[in-house]
């Protein structure tokens, strides 16, 4: 009866309630042990939604794999806002520096399709555009063009 459970949990704040409790209840694992280990391993992502994968065996043993939070969650945390804009092309909720974009790109690099930080930053810029976040005071929809023009090479290629 070994199996796998995947869930999004608040970093450092998982509890035996939903979504984990109902999934783990019928398994042979100790739910509180799983929750405690998840909270230890996700403490750095305090409050952000973090993907976790729990693999368990019939004897009650388990392993936990912690993923990287979604790009939007990393951007919200870095820029310091709660929700994206309802009208992202007109109503901007935050502004990020190129250094902040680079930081998010580096944190997310293992999950992105990019081969380097420069292209990862462009993917982060796309998420910024959909959230209503400007980059260096300019509309994030023009970020790709500015990166391609070499405007941020000093930061993104360092």
From TrEMBL:
GO molecular function, one term: large ribosomal subunit rRNA binding
One GO CC annotation: large ribosomal subunit
UniProt region (Disordered), positions on chain: 1-27
Pfam families assigned to the protein according to its UniProt record, in alphabetical order: Ribosomal_L11 (PF00298), Ribosomal_L11_N (PF03946)
Lineage: superkingdom: Archaea
Domain Large ribosomal subunit protein uL11 N-terminal: 6-62
Segments forming domain Large ribosomal subunit protein uL11 C-terminal: 68-135
Quaternary organization: Part of the ribosomal stalk of the 50S ribosomal subunit. Interacts with L10 and the large rRNA to form the base of the stalk. L10 forms an elongated spine to which L12 dimers bind in a sequential fashion forming a multimeric L10(L12)X complex.
Annotated PANTHER family: 60S RIBOSOMAL PROTEIN L12 (PTHR11661), LARGE RIBOSOMAL SUBUNIT PROTEIN UL11M (PTHR11661:SF1)
Family membership: Belongs to the universal ribosomal protein uL11 family.
Role description: Forms part of the ribosomal stalk which helps the ribosome interact with GTP-bound translation factors.
Stated name of the protein: Large ribosomal subunit protein uL11
Protein source organism: Halorubrum saccharovorum DSM 1137
């Amino acid at each position: 009866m070994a199996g796998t459970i995947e869930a999004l949990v608040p970093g450092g704040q998982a509890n035996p309630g939903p979504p984990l409790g109902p999934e783990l209840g019928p398994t042979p694992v100790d739910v509180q042990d799983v929750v405690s280990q998840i909270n230890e391993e996700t403490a750095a992502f305090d409050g952000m939604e973090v993907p976790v994968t729990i693999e368990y065996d019939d004897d009650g043993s388990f392993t936990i794999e912690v993923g990287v939070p979604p790009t939007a969650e990393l951007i919200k945390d870095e820029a310091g806002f709660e929700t994206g804009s309802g009208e992202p092309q007109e109503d901007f909720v935050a502004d990020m520096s190129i250094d902040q974009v680079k930081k998010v790109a580096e944190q997310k690099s293992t999950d992105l399709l990019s081969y380097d930080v420069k292209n990862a930053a462009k993917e982060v810029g796309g998420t910024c555009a959909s959230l209503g976040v400007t980059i260096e005071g300019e509309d994030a929809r023009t970020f790709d063009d500015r990166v391609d023009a070499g405007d941020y090479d000093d930061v993104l290629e360092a």
